[in-house]
Amino acid sequence: MDVMAEPAARPVTVAIERRVDPSRTAEATSWMQAGTDLASGFPGFLGSGWVRAGEGSDLWYMLYRFGDIPTLEDWEQSPQREWWLDSGRAFAREVRSERRTGIEGWFDAPLASHVEPRHSGDASAPRTGPVHQPIPLAPPRWKQAVTIWLGFFPTNLLASWLLGFVPGFGEWPLIARVLLATVLLTPVMTYAVLPWVTRMLRPWLQRGT
């Protein structure tokens, strides 16, 4: 009898939309960073990032990523995360969250909160209440590949140029040079380059999806 192989674990990206009191931005910024610092101590953590919808806006978007579902759930069910969430309840309220597997998670459009009319026959009644609208489909794989390349090529080029100034670096064994380069570039790509490139290319990435 054939035995089915277990599917390979896939990274999971969680996208969360929160409403934060605009008068407590400094506290919220420190709070977000504290959450990242706590999560980074858990096995499977692959990176995170957050951005505000605009200056003065109370909408904040946060992404964090883990190697698979079990490691993600270890973080989400941990007492550390529960303490962190409790410490921010005075100024931050979670509106919605979504999970994505694979690299597609970095390419999701920012979560959007809509409003709907009250259940009333009066057409002029105030509109209220968030509507949980699904995130648009991830862009085609070829667009994702182009986006990653556009971020990785200049970053790798700059890193290679800078490492050339390290005395004797060119004489290191190939595996040592590649190891150092990947150790340096992986967090740069995860925390800075890839989120920035995807934001810049968002209209093109989402066109037609």
Automatic annotation (TrEMBL):
SUPFAM superfamilies recorded: Dimeric alpha+beta barrel
Q: Where are the transmembrane segments?
A: 146-168, 174-197
Q: InterPro entries from the xrefs?
A: ABM_dom, ABM_predict, Dimeric_a/b-barrel
**Gene Ontology MF terms:** monooxygenase activity
The superkingdom listed in its UniProt entry is Bacteria
Q: Which residues form the ABM domain?
A: 11-80
Entry keywords, A to Z: Membrane, Monooxygenase, Oxidoreductase, Transmembrane, Transmembrane helix
Q: What is this protein called?
A: Antibiotic biosynthesis monooxygenase
